[in-house]
Amino acid sequence: DAMVIQNPRYQVTQFGKPVTLSCSQTLNHNVMYWYQQKSSQAPKLLFHYYDKDFNNEADTPDNFQSRRPNTSFCFLDIRSPGLGDAAMYLCATSREGPGITDTQYFGPGTRLTVL
Amino acid sequence: TQLLEQSPQFLSIQEGENLTVYCNSSSVFSSLQWYRQEPGEGPVLLVTVVTGGEVKKLKRLTFQFGDARKDSSLHITAAQPGDTGLYLCAGARQTGANNLFFGTGTRLTVIP
C-alpha cells in the first residue's frame, strides 16, 4: 500500500500560472519535506514541516510556498512558475524531527512541466 | 559545497558482474541511507546504517558504514538488469534540523 502519495504525478502549467502540488501520507509521521530534483541531480531540499513548524531552506526562492493543514497533507505552491522551475518535486516524510536521526520515505514525485 | 561525494558517477556493466559504489565525506554522520531511484519515480529506501563499521546485507547488496561514520559503500554481487537505476547515498547529521545531505549519485546501467 502506498505510504506517501503525490498528486498529480504529472503537471503541466504555463509560465507565470500558479500551481499547487499535493502530498499525503498514511504513516502518521510528524515531519514532511519537499524536495526539488532536476535531471540527473540529487534532490534539493526546499523546506520541511516539523509538525506545524515551517522550516525554510535559506536558498529556497520566495516563489515557493508550502502549507500543511493537518498531519496527513502537505502542499507545495509555486506562485509564478518559471521555465527553470520545471523539475521533479518529491515529498518525503520522517517519524521524528530536529536533532534526531531518522529515515525519510519518499513519494513517487510529481513531474512539473512549464510551458 | 558538496558534503557527500559518490563515485563513480556513471557505471555501465554486464549482467553477472560485481560492482562497488562509494560514498565519501569529511563530515561525520549519525546515520547514512542508501536509495535507488528509477526514472520518473521517487527514491526508494534500500537501507539505513547507523553504527560505525556496520555491515548490512539485502540479498545481493552489501552495505557498509565506515568505522568513523564518514563514508559508506554499496557492493552488488552478480548484477542484474533490474539493478539499473540511480543510487543515492544520504547522510543525516545529529545536530540541527533533520535534513538529509544527498550524495552526487551513481547512475548504474546493467546490460543484459
How is this structure best summarized?
The complex is a heterodimer of chains A (115) and B (112). Chain A is mainly β.
Description:
The complex is a heterodimer of chains A (115) and B (112). With 115 residues, chain A is mostly beta strands. Chain A has strands at residues 4-7, 10-13, 19-25, 31-37, 44-50, 53-56, 64-67, 73-78, 87-94, 105-106, 110-114. In chain A, strands 2, 4, 5, 6, 9, 10 and 11 form a seven-stranded mixed sheet that branches. A four-stranded antiparallel sheet of chain A has the order 1-3-8-7, with no helix packed on it. Chain A is globular and about 35 Å long. In chain A, 36% of the residues are buried. With 112 residues, chain B is mainly beta. Chain B has no helices and eleven strands. Chain B has strands spanning 5-7, 10-14, 19-24, 31-37, 44-49, 55-58, 61-65, 71-76, 85-92, 100-102, 106-111. In chain B, the strands form two sheets. In chain B, strands 2, 4, 5, 9, 10 and 11 form a six-stranded mixed sheet that branches. In chain B, strands 1-3-8-7-6 form a five-stranded antiparallel sheet, with no helix packed on it. In chain B, a hairpin with a 2-residue loop joins strand 6 (55-58) and strand 7. Chain B is globular. The A-B interface holds A 4, 6, 31, 40-45, 48, 50, 55, 88, 90, 92, 94, 96-109, 111 and B 30-31, 33, 35, 40-45, 48, 50, 86, 88, 90, 92, 94-100, 102-105, 107.
